[in-house]
Design brief:
This protein is of the alpha/beta class. It has one domain: 3-Layer(aba) Sandwich (Rossmann fold), CATH 3.40.50.150. Helices cover about 40% and strands about 20% of the residues. The chain contains eight helices and seven strands, in the order αααβαβαββαβααββ. A seven-stranded mixed β-sheet has the order 3-2-1-4-5-7-6, sandwiched between helices. It is globular.
Protein backbone atom coordinates (compact mmCIF):
# COMPACT_ATOMS: atom_id res chain seq x y z
CA UNK A 1 0.00 0.00 0.00
CA UNK A 2 1.40 3.42 -1.00
CA UNK A 3 1.58 6.42 1.33
CA UNK A 4 -1.31 8.05 -0.54
CA UNK A 5 -3.43 4.95 -0.12
CA UNK A 6 -2.64 4.87 3.60
CA UNK A 7 -3.55 8.55 4.01
CA UNK A 8 -6.76 8.05 2.03
CA UNK A 9 -7.74 5.07 4.18
CA UNK A 10 -7.02 7.02 7.36
CA UNK A 11 -9.15 10.02 6.43
CA UNK A 12 -11.98 7.95 4.98
CA UNK A 13 -12.45 6.77 8.56
CA UNK A 14 -11.51 9.87 10.54
CA UNK A 15 -12.62 12.98 8.61
CA UNK A 16 -15.75 13.48 10.74
CA UNK A 17 -13.70 13.33 13.93
CA UNK A 18 -11.03 15.64 12.49
CA UNK A 19 -13.65 18.15 11.37
CA UNK A 20 -14.77 18.58 14.99
CA UNK A 21 -11.87 21.05 15.22
CA UNK A 22 -14.04 23.55 13.36
CA UNK A 23 -17.29 23.18 15.28
CA UNK A 24 -18.46 23.53 18.87
CA UNK A 25 -20.74 20.52 18.47
CA UNK A 26 -18.54 18.33 20.67
CA UNK A 27 -18.26 17.40 24.32
CA UNK A 28 -16.35 19.50 26.83
CA UNK A 29 -13.38 17.10 26.90
CA UNK A 30 -12.82 17.45 23.15
CA UNK A 31 -13.27 21.24 23.40
CA UNK A 32 -10.62 21.38 26.12
CA UNK A 33 -8.15 19.22 24.15
CA UNK A 34 -8.62 21.26 20.97
CA UNK A 35 -8.22 24.62 22.68
CA UNK A 36 -5.35 23.52 24.92
CA UNK A 37 -3.23 21.41 22.57
CA UNK A 38 -4.38 22.19 19.02
CA UNK A 39 -4.78 25.96 19.04
CA UNK A 40 -2.16 26.33 16.30
CA UNK A 41 -4.83 24.87 14.00
CA UNK A 42 -7.03 27.88 14.73
CA UNK A 43 -4.10 30.26 14.36
CA UNK A 44 -3.18 28.92 10.92
CA UNK A 45 -6.84 29.15 9.92
CA UNK A 46 -7.01 32.82 10.90
CA UNK A 47 -3.70 33.60 9.18
CA UNK A 48 -4.84 31.89 5.99
CA UNK A 49 -8.01 33.96 5.85
CA UNK A 50 -5.96 37.09 6.53
CA UNK A 51 -3.64 36.23 3.61
CA UNK A 52 -6.77 35.92 1.46
CA UNK A 53 -8.37 39.23 2.41
CA UNK A 54 -8.52 40.61 -1.14
CA UNK A 55 -9.78 37.66 -3.14
CA UNK A 56 -12.78 39.15 -4.88
CA UNK A 57 -12.90 37.71 -8.39
CA UNK A 58 -10.02 35.28 -7.78
CA UNK A 59 -9.76 31.53 -8.20
CA UNK A 60 -8.44 29.42 -5.31
CA UNK A 61 -7.38 25.81 -4.92
CA UNK A 62 -7.34 23.96 -1.59
CA UNK A 63 -5.27 20.76 -1.62
CA UNK A 64 -6.33 18.25 1.02
CA UNK A 65 -9.49 20.26 1.61
CA UNK A 66 -11.03 17.83 4.08
CA UNK A 67 -14.62 18.85 4.84
CA UNK A 68 -14.13 22.13 2.98
CA UNK A 69 -14.06 24.57 5.90
CA UNK A 70 -11.42 26.81 4.31
CA UNK A 71 -13.17 26.67 0.93
CA UNK A 72 -16.51 27.71 2.39
CA UNK A 73 -15.14 30.74 4.23
CA UNK A 74 -13.08 31.79 1.21
CA UNK A 75 -16.19 31.61 -0.95
CA UNK A 76 -17.99 33.82 1.57
CA UNK A 77 -15.14 36.33 1.30
CA UNK A 78 -15.88 36.86 -2.38
CA UNK A 79 -13.74 34.42 -4.35
CA UNK A 80 -14.85 33.85 -7.93
CA UNK A 81 -14.38 30.11 -7.50
CA UNK A 82 -12.87 27.74 -4.97
CA UNK A 83 -11.87 24.18 -5.81
CA UNK A 84 -11.14 21.67 -3.07
CA UNK A 85 -9.43 18.36 -3.78
CA UNK A 86 -9.04 15.47 -1.35
CA UNK A 87 -8.09 11.80 -1.49
CA UNK A 88 -10.98 10.73 0.75
CA UNK A 89 -14.46 10.36 -0.74
CA UNK A 90 -16.09 10.85 2.67
CA UNK A 91 -14.31 14.22 2.98
CA UNK A 92 -15.56 15.35 -0.43
CA UNK A 93 -19.11 14.25 0.39
CA UNK A 94 -19.02 16.19 3.67
CA UNK A 95 -17.58 19.25 1.93
CA UNK A 96 -20.35 19.24 -0.69
CA UNK A 97 -22.98 18.99 2.03
CA UNK A 98 -21.48 21.83 4.09
CA UNK A 99 -21.09 24.06 1.02
CA UNK A 100 -24.75 23.59 0.17
CA UNK A 101 -25.74 24.22 3.80
CA UNK A 102 -23.78 27.49 3.71
CA UNK A 103 -25.24 28.57 0.33
CA UNK A 104 -21.87 28.60 -1.44
CA UNK A 105 -22.24 25.51 -3.61
CA UNK A 106 -22.31 27.72 -6.71
CA UNK A 107 -18.82 29.00 -5.85
CA UNK A 108 -17.28 25.85 -4.34
CA UNK A 109 -16.59 22.62 -6.14
CA UNK A 110 -14.95 19.53 -4.71
CA UNK A 111 -12.97 16.79 -6.41
CA UNK A 112 -12.00 13.36 -5.14
CA UNK A 113 -8.51 12.55 -6.28
CA UNK A 114 -4.76 12.92 -5.99
CA UNK A 115 -3.56 16.47 -6.65
CA UNK A 116 -0.28 15.19 -8.11
CA UNK A 117 -2.18 13.24 -10.77
CA UNK A 118 -4.87 15.81 -11.50
CA UNK A 119 -4.94 18.07 -14.56
CA UNK A 120 -6.73 21.41 -14.21
CA UNK A 121 -8.46 23.45 -16.90
CA UNK A 122 -7.25 26.78 -15.50
CA UNK A 123 -4.67 28.31 -13.22
CA UNK A 124 -5.44 29.58 -9.73
CA UNK A 125 -4.46 32.84 -8.13
CA UNK A 126 -3.89 31.24 -4.69
CA UNK A 127 -3.18 27.63 -3.72
CA UNK A 128 -3.47 26.22 -0.19
CA UNK A 129 -1.82 23.15 1.31
CA UNK A 130 -2.79 23.38 4.98
CA UNK A 131 -2.19 20.21 6.98
CA UNK A 132 -0.88 18.45 3.87
CA UNK A 133 2.89 18.39 4.39
CA UNK A 134 2.24 16.22 7.45
CA UNK A 135 1.60 13.30 5.09
CA UNK A 136 3.89 14.18 2.15
CA UNK A 137 7.17 12.31 1.66
CA UNK A 138 8.32 14.62 -1.16
CA UNK A 139 7.30 18.23 -0.39
CA UNK A 140 9.55 19.63 -3.15
CA UNK A 141 7.63 17.70 -5.80
CA UNK A 142 4.32 18.85 -4.33
CA UNK A 143 5.39 22.50 -4.22
CA UNK A 144 6.65 22.31 -7.81
CA UNK A 145 3.20 21.12 -8.94
CA UNK A 146 1.55 23.86 -6.88
CA UNK A 147 3.68 26.46 -8.66
CA UNK A 148 2.63 25.10 -12.05
CA UNK A 149 -1.05 25.78 -11.37
CA UNK A 150 -0.75 29.04 -9.37
CA UNK A 151 -0.02 32.62 -10.39
CA UNK A 152 0.18 34.67 -7.16
CA UNK A 153 0.57 32.93 -3.82
CA UNK A 154 1.10 29.56 -2.11
CA UNK A 155 0.00 29.12 1.51
CA UNK A 156 1.24 26.06 3.39
CA UNK A 157 1.69 24.65 6.87
CA UNK A 158 4.44 22.32 8.10
CA UNK A 159 4.14 20.37 11.37
CA UNK A 160 7.06 21.14 13.64
CA UNK A 161 9.49 18.81 15.31
CA UNK A 162 8.97 18.89 19.07
CA UNK A 163 9.44 16.66 22.09
CA UNK A 164 6.38 14.95 23.50
CA UNK A 165 3.61 16.06 21.09
CA UNK A 166 5.54 14.80 18.05
CA UNK A 167 6.25 11.49 19.78
CA UNK A 168 2.61 11.03 20.78
CA UNK A 169 1.39 11.88 17.29
CA UNK A 170 3.92 9.56 15.66
CA UNK A 171 2.77 6.68 17.87
CA UNK A 172 -0.90 7.35 17.15
CA UNK A 173 -0.36 7.43 13.41
CA UNK A 174 1.98 4.43 13.47
CA UNK A 175 -0.82 2.43 15.10
CA UNK A 176 -3.16 3.66 12.35
CA UNK A 177 -0.58 2.78 9.66
CA UNK A 178 -0.57 6.35 8.35
CA UNK A 179 2.69 8.14 7.34
CA UNK A 180 3.64 11.31 9.18
CA UNK A 181 6.48 13.82 8.67
CA UNK A 182 7.84 16.70 10.77
CA UNK A 183 10.06 19.69 10.04
CA UNK A 184 12.12 22.45 11.61
CA UNK A 185 12.87 25.85 10.10
CA UNK A 186 16.11 24.64 8.50
CA UNK A 187 14.24 21.78 6.82
CA UNK A 188 11.73 24.24 5.37
CA UNK A 189 14.45 26.61 4.14
CA UNK A 190 16.13 23.68 2.40
CA UNK A 191 12.83 22.67 0.80
CA UNK A 192 12.31 26.23 -0.44
CA UNK A 193 15.83 26.33 -1.89
CA UNK A 194 15.36 23.00 -3.65
CA UNK A 195 12.04 24.30 -4.99
CA UNK A 196 13.88 27.39 -6.31
CA UNK A 197 11.71 29.70 -4.21
CA UNK A 198 13.23 32.90 -2.82
CA UNK A 199 10.29 35.12 -1.86
CA UNK A 200 8.65 33.50 1.15
CA UNK A 201 7.95 34.00 4.85
CA UNK A 202 7.97 31.48 7.71
CA UNK A 203 5.91 32.09 10.86
CA UNK A 204 6.18 29.79 13.87
CA UNK A 205 2.75 29.33 15.38
CA UNK A 206 1.95 28.96 19.06
CA UNK A 207 1.87 25.54 20.62
CA UNK A 208 2.70 23.66 23.80
CA UNK A 209 6.16 22.04 23.82
CA UNK A 210 7.16 24.38 20.97
CA UNK A 211 4.93 22.19 18.81
CA UNK A 212 3.02 24.79 16.80
CA UNK A 213 3.04 24.48 13.02
CA UNK A 214 5.15 26.57 10.69
CA UNK A 215 2.99 28.79 8.50
CA UNK A 216 4.62 29.47 5.13
CA UNK A 217 3.56 31.99 2.48
CA UNK A 218 5.22 32.00 -0.96
CA UNK A 219 4.78 34.94 -3.29
CA UNK A 220 5.18 34.05 -6.94
Amino acid sequence: MTDDQKVKKHFEKSIAEFDLLYTEKKNWIRRFIDRRFRYDNYERYDLTLKECENISGKRLLDIGCGAGRYCIDLAKKGAESVVGIDLAETAVQMACFLAESNDVSDTCSFVKGNFMERQFDCQFHICLAIGVMDYTSDPVRLISKMRQVTTEKLIMSFPSKSTYRMAIRKLRYWIKNCPLYFYNSDDIKKIMAESEINDYSITKLSGSDNSGDYFVVVRL
